[in-house]
């Protein structure tokens, strides 16, 4: 039984230790925005938390994927365990470009969370620079 527990700890460290797991993400830059695509299949929309952290210039994605029982309700053996369940958390640091935090939007469909982060428009205004003669 101890060998089984050791194997469980190796294959499912987030569950065994009570720690969170990290979903896989893509960070894509487009001309006017950044896109974050997170793979979180099996998570209910109401379980997802999304937070922009300006002090770290990052997006924090948190949530929980509940473990489901087998379809018929009984297990006769476990042969492979690769899917993580429980709490998850992932911080995605953005490149050093100003973003419009008030217009960050997100959608969740088909197991993917898509976060759209618009870049801040930089308006360059011409101005006169005063100087003094030395």
Please describe the topology of this protein:
Elements: H1 2-11, H2 13-17, E1 25-29, E2 33-39, E3 49-53, E4 58-65, E5 86-93, E6 105-109, E7 112-118
Antiparallel strand pairs: 1-2, 2-7, 3-4, 4-5, 6-7
Walkthrough of the structure:
This protein is mainly beta. It has a domain of 84 residues: Immunoglobulin-like (Sandwich). 11% of the residues lie in helices and 34% in strands. The strands form two sheets. Strands 1-2-7-6 form a four-stranded antiparallel β-sheet, with no helix packed on it.
CATH C-level name of one domain: Mainly Beta
Number of strands: 7
> Any low-confidence stretches, pLDDT <50, length ≥5?
none
| Span between termini | 85 Å
* Structural class category: mainly beta
Q: What order do the SSEs take from the amino end to the carboxyl end, as H and E? A: HHEEEEEEE
CATH topology (level 3) name of one domain: Immunoglobulin-like
At CATH level 2, the architecture of one domain is: Sandwich
